[in-house]
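Illustration: GntR family transcriptional regulator.
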Amino acid sequence: MSNETSRWAAAIRNSSKPAYVALADALAADIQSGQLAALQRLPTLRSLAGALDLNFSTVARGYAEAQRRGLIDSRAGSGSFVRETLSSGPVRRSPPAGIIDMTMNMPPEPRDPALLQRLRDGFASLAADGDPWSMLRYQEFGGMPEDREAGARWLSRHVPGVDGSRVLVCPGAQGALLALFALLARPGDSIACEAVTYPGIKGLAAQLGIRLAGLPADDAGIDPEAFGALCAADLPKALYLNPTLNNPTTAVMSPERREAVAEIARRYNVPIIEDDPYACLPQQRSVALAALAPELTFHVTGFSKCLGAGMRIGYVSLPSARYAARLSAIMRTTTVMAPPPLVRLATRWIDDGTVRAMTLAIREESRARQRIAVQVLRRADYFTKPEAFHLWLAVPAPWTRIEFATHLRAHGVGVVVSDTFTVSGAAPEAVRVCLGGPADRDGCRHTLEIIEDAIEQAPAVMSRVM
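Result:
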């Protein structure tokens, strides 16, 4: 039985709804979490009926219900597929009624009145600008010079010496990653990455026909020797890394590993995509790979982790200005441009210190929620860092990750299973828990108590199925 059918079987067993509705719900959950990508082929009705131990007509009704909801398409002679218009990776959304959403890795929202007023003032300032048409026109692709310079000022905290000529403004970090994958690789090429990594790149690679080569990693980052061996045997077109507070494992790449990986990349001339949206959160900064191998590294960051996911503004620092025109052309084709009102707001908030103030507030709120996790999750085995707003929870036997996540969802808590993040090898028995999902600390504590209760009990005791 595949990972997908195992999840669906567990979801159906633990649901009080008719089996065909529970199947459609399971498909919806996998599509929303990114575990099913756009255009992914689904099992045939007959094979799925056998795997789930359901009759053919029940599975057919489940697929029909999923098609009615706009989740899948079925074509005679071709089978059933996830709809092309759906996102291939997780997107921020309002949680289903009754569900405390700890699936999306969004920052906690500080409630400091002075800080909230700064945000309101920033939005109000857009309305007060003299020429609204200036925010409704096409802008220079890659950003206006003043906005690129503002991005360089923000990036300079982590990438010393960067200037506006080497910075492009993007519609979020994901837009930058899409453009970089398209720039550096072609269909059939490979890009190396952590074996357990940010799921957004899995969707990008699938859409572009790029192979991902997963590298073993631990709490200090990827294994440099494994990277070197891969380069010698099957040279990748690029190396993608999420080196600081890795999503999902929270690993922070050590200085020694960063230096070793930079040296290997230089030896084999492998470009590095440094996806570092969490770099602003730790008080103790790590040296960016862009500082160690500036001639090879594309450093990507954005505001979704230090302001909020709705602030879809990102920046990419280029190895040299000569890449600007090529990358701008790709972004013009794929995403056109970043929204001008948000770009203007981002520049204003960089210059007046609002981004910095928000980052510090999110850091402190994350620390507070991590302290709650230490108090509540006394029996849990998990990995995290003091300033991270997520944790990587090992699922204890006899639970499986699928049963554990399904059980939590039945009790109103959404988490993400490791399959979503796994590029190569067997998916570990683990789930990612986002501490930023609950609205406040009391909600965070309550949700973690539900998780701790599940850890203390065996699946047979907790099962709702008689």
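Reading the tokens back as a structure: The radius of gyration is 22 Å.
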